[in-house]
Design brief:
Shape of chain A: globular
Oligomer: heterodimer
Shape of chain B: globular
Number of strands of chain B: 0
Distance between the termini of chain B: 6 Å
Largest sheet of chain B: none
Number of helices of chain B: 13
Largest interface: A-B, 72 and 73 residues
Helix content of chain B: over 70%
Structural class of chain B: mainly alpha
Radius of gyration of chain B: 24 Å
Helix content of chain A: 25-40%
Number of strands of chain A: 19
Structural class of chain A: alpha+beta
Largest sheet of chain A: 11 strands, mixed
Strand content of chain A: 15-25%
Order of helices and strands of chain B: HHHHHHHHHHHHH
Number of helices of chain A: 16
Radius of gyration of chain A: 27 Å
């Protein structure tokens, strides 16, 4: 046996020796690398952002996720752009005029260049819009520009359709709208409305966005994109306001794992983490309070009720379901990350709007709400012995599940037997779109800061996105009237009346208003929390 | 041996074709499509996009188009990461996955076999129990627990390695992912080796070797290990293929630019061409490595040598 032991010992010893050398070597290399990267950091200002999703494309026309538009906003300058506080400010357009009927806009394009030195012209914007709307391109977000006259016709391939946008001269752009839409200016900050460098797109086709080809008019240009790892941008010296851009390089690291991103932030390997691991919120509040940023975000989390199903046609039943949900318990005990209980469909503070139209019973105590709900359910014939049965659907997510379980229990007390049904996102939304559900979880984040961008979800003409199949003639009428109303105040009142109808009818049960949650190192200056949650790198700086 | 090898390679072609066909249709049977999302697309836009990707054509025609392009080496475009073709994404990610995977499996092989052998020849000793106990823990702890722990301990608390990231591919970024990948493999291989080693050490030919008066070192190194490695070798085929095509957990936790993520993300996103691309890569790896395993088997096992 001793021989056996000798052999084994020899084997293990040999391995240990070599592994010791391996570890030592590694430690030495690791040490020298760390030193190298520190000395580089002192030379120029590099902003390292943890981004909670892989970008889709550097081509503005193929972007539909917020994680991608963060990068694209740094590279492209729309006619208007996001200011330091997330509000629209002049960008490529230095000024504009609006016709009396609010339907014709004339923009004066700033004298500025693409990153290869070619001047940016009015025609570059028109070319961008025409490309976005070209049916053959298949751009997901093309409908955002439908407010421009002719846009929808072009995008749907109608014969002889023409976009009502023309270049009066190199620096003057005239656009006609289909309705006086006060949100049009805000919409121009969106990537769908960006210009394209015609000379580059014509030369390289779809490859124009490769780092070696790309030409931009924004503060930064792309130098590298390693899929699943990072996208690296460097300052564009041709940018019109380059002298006020403080940060030389910005790297967006892709991190879908929130905990991993948070750990990198804690190890000072990231300056910003665009999301947090919500389950660790109390730890973050205790230990990283100087970095933790939680701010209202223009979005609503809601349950859609399929109103065309027989059991949900009675508005009182829907109202009872809404009444029985203890929103404060969901935000304070289930989520705990600063979300606000929602009693309206439009989040407070949304642009071109008044105070939202809250449900009439908002201020009742929870006990009163439940009592009222019970009464309504009993009137409709439902009790604990004879409960209303249906399926509550949600897409895969720990939070959706926890909320659904909480709501299921809240509903029990008013004679509701809801069965939970979970599917992954793709299946969930495919079924929602065709109305294959009874009650389902959904959410909406504004594309542009205007109440209409929430309320259109209740319009009959909206089609599949009107998950509840809500069809209230008065609501439809009010929304149509708002669309054609040039006066901002009157328009807001019309939309407010519409929302009041929706809140009384409850096709959508608002549950909470979203918040943005992120970690921002205290050494980053110029970061202003804002509802659109836009933080262009050009407005930021890194303190020594 | 040569004709056997050729025969095996020829069988691989229809196998691969079957895999491609089954994967193609299974992916399409799955409910939901690439454009079903929180904000549904207006019908007219969805129509435009589907046309741009040929998704509006009958399924059988799409299949014909796909296979036709595949024969020309065209894996198609990615639907979700639109600036890259599937081939570009795989070419960009495969080197990192393969490098990490191969290193991890090599480390696992060395440590696993050594520990397993050591435990086997000290069967039922305290050391055996310790090694096997640790191995059991290694198998039982899932990598989504182990990886963040490693990152937390070595990256954050001890600060001797980066918590995550890839830098420009320097060694320091690769150490933790390699360890995380290798640990469960070490454990598994150690258990396999021990099991078969114990069996081999009790077999007739080892008794004969001892009876011949061979020294124990020679008995173990020349005779026993060879026989004991057979199950390890057959395990290594699929294991290497799996480890080399990346791990979604390790890659997303450590930010590795590999292809492992695509197996899950592409499937969830219904990014059909990308799913097909990674399935093909995985299938080819499995076929190749199993072939290699069979060849090594032939060398190790005298009974098969004659074939």
């Amino acid at each position: 046996m001793s021989d056996n032991a000798m052999t084994a010992k020899g084997l293990v010893n040999g391995l240990l020796k070599s592994s010791r050398a391996f570890v030592l070597g590694t430690a030495l290399i690791a040490g020298s690398m760390t030193m190298l990267s520190t000395s580089q950091a002192q030379a120029e200002k590099i902003l390292r952002i943890g981004n909670d999703g892989e970008p889709q494309s550097m081509d503005p026309h193929f972007i539909s996720t917020i994680q991608t538009s963060r990068i694209s906003d740094d590279m492209s300058l729309g006619l208007l752009t996001y200011g330091p506080d997330g509000q629209p400010v002049p960008g490529a357009a230095e000024s504009w005029t609006v016709s009396e009927d609010g339907m014709t806009y004339t923009f004066k394009i700033r004298d500025h260049n693409w990153s290869d030195g070619t001047p940016v012209t009015a025609q570059d914007f028109i070319a961008g819009w025409e490309r976005l709307l070209d049916p053959a391109l298949g751009a997901e977000y093309a409908s955002l520009l439908y407010i421009i006259e002719g846009a929808e016709e072009v995008n749907t391939g109608k014969d002889g359709a023409k976009l009502a946008a023309k270049a009066i001269d190199v620096h003057t752009l005239e656009v006609k709208l289909t309705a006086p839409a006060p949100y049009f200016l805000a919409q121009l900050t969106h990537q769908t409305a960006f210009a394209i460098p015609r000379h580059v797109v014509e030369k390289y086709g779809r490859d124009w966005v490769k780092p070696e080809n790309i030409v931009v008019n924004g503060a930064y240009k792309l130098v590298e994109w390693v899929p699943n790892v990072h996208t690296k941008l460097v300052k564009n010296d041709e940018f019109y306001d380059a002298e006020n851009v403080k940060i030389d390089e910005v790297i967006y690291y892709t991190y879908e794992d929130r905990t991993a991103m948070q750990n990198r932030f804690r190890a000072d390997e990231l300056d910003v983490a665009r999301d947090i691991a919500s389950e660790q919120i109390s730890w973050l509040r205790d230990n990283l309070s100087d970095s933790l940023r939680i701010a209202p975000y223009a979005g609503i989390y809601y349950y859609a009720i399929r109103t065309d199903k027989e059991k949900f046609q009675d508005p009182n039943v829907r109202k009872a379901l809404s009444l029985a949900i203890n929103r404060e318990a969901i935000t304070d005990a289930v989520l705990k990350t600063g979300e606000l209980p929602a009693y309206s469909f439009v989040p407070p503070g949304t642009g071109n709007y008044t105070e939202p139209a809250y449900v009439s019973w908002k201020d009742l105590s929870y006990g009163e709400k439940v009592a009222e709900a019970k009464k309504l359910m009993e009137a409709a014939g439902y009790t604990a012995e004879n409960p209303l049965k249906f399926t509550l659907r949600y897409n895969t997510s720990e939070n959706h599940k926890r909320i659904a379980i909480a709501v299921q229990n809240m509903w029990k007390q008013i004679g509701v037997d809801a069965e939970l049904f979970n599917t992954e996102g793709k299946i969930h939304y495919a079924d929602l779109k065709v109305g294959d559900f009874e009650v389902a979880r959904a959410g909406w984040i504004a594309d542009y800061n205007d109440a209409q961008n929430f309320l259109f979800l209740g319009e009959e003409r909206t089609g599949p996105l009107n998950y509840a199949a809500f069809d209230n003639p008065r609501y439809n009428e009010l929304m149509l009237a708002a669309e054609n109303e040039g006066d901002l105040k009157k328009r807001a009142e019309l939309m407010h009346s519409a929302e009041a109808i929706m809140m009384e009818a409850q096709p959508y049960i608002p549950i909470y208003y979203y918040v943005s949650k992120q970690l921002v190192s205290p050494k980053i200056t110029g970061w202003i929390d804002n509802a659109p949650d836009r933080h262009l790198t050009r407005w930021l700086d890194i303190a020594k | 041996m040569l004709s056997y090898a050729i025969r095996r390679l020829l069988i691989a072609i229809p196998t691969l074709f079957v895999v491609i066909t089954v994967a193609f249709f299974m992916m399409r049977i799955a409910p939901g499509g690439p454009f079903d999302q929180e904000r549904a697309l207006p019908p007219e836009i969805e129509k435009n996009i589907k046309a741009a990707y040929d998704l509006d054509k009958p399924l059988i025609e799409q299949y014909a188009i796909y296979v036709g392009k595949l024969f020309q080496g065209d894996f198609g475009p990615s639907i979700k990461i639109r600036d890259f073709s599937v081939a570009e994404l795989i070419m960009a990610g495969a080197p990192a996955s393969m490098q990490l995977g191969l290193t991890a499996i090599a480390i696992a092989l060395v440590f696993g076999v050594a520990l397993g052998t050591y435990a086997a020849i000290r069967q039922n000793s305290a050391i055996d129990f310790v090694v096997m106990g640790v191995a059991m823990i290694g198998i039982a702890i899932p990598n989504f627990v182990m990886a963040p722990l490693l990152s937390l301990v070595f990256g954050l608390y001890l600060s001797i390695l980066p918590t995550a990231g890839w830098g420009d591919g320097e060694l320091q970024y690769k150490i933790l992912p390699i360890i995380a990948l290798a640990l469960p493999q070490i454990a598994y291989i150690a258990r396999l080796t021990r099991g078969s080693m114990v069996e081999v050490m009790n077999s007739n030919y080892i008794r004969t070797a001892r009876a011949k008066g061979l020294r124990e070192t020679l008995v173990v190194n020349r005779h026993a290990i060879r026989g004991a490695l057979l199950p390890v070798v057959s395990y290594l085929g699929p294991a290497t293929a799996a480890v080399m095509t990346g791990s979604v957990v390790i890659e997303s936790i450590f930010g590795v630019p590999g292809i492992g993520t695509y197996f899950v993300k592409a499937a969830l996103n219904r990014d059909y061409p990308l799913v097909m691309g990674v399935v093909i890569v995985f299938a080819v790896m499995i076929i190749l490595l199993n072939f290699l395993v069979d060849m090594i088997y032939g060398l190790l096992d005298p009974k098969l040598k004659s074939r």
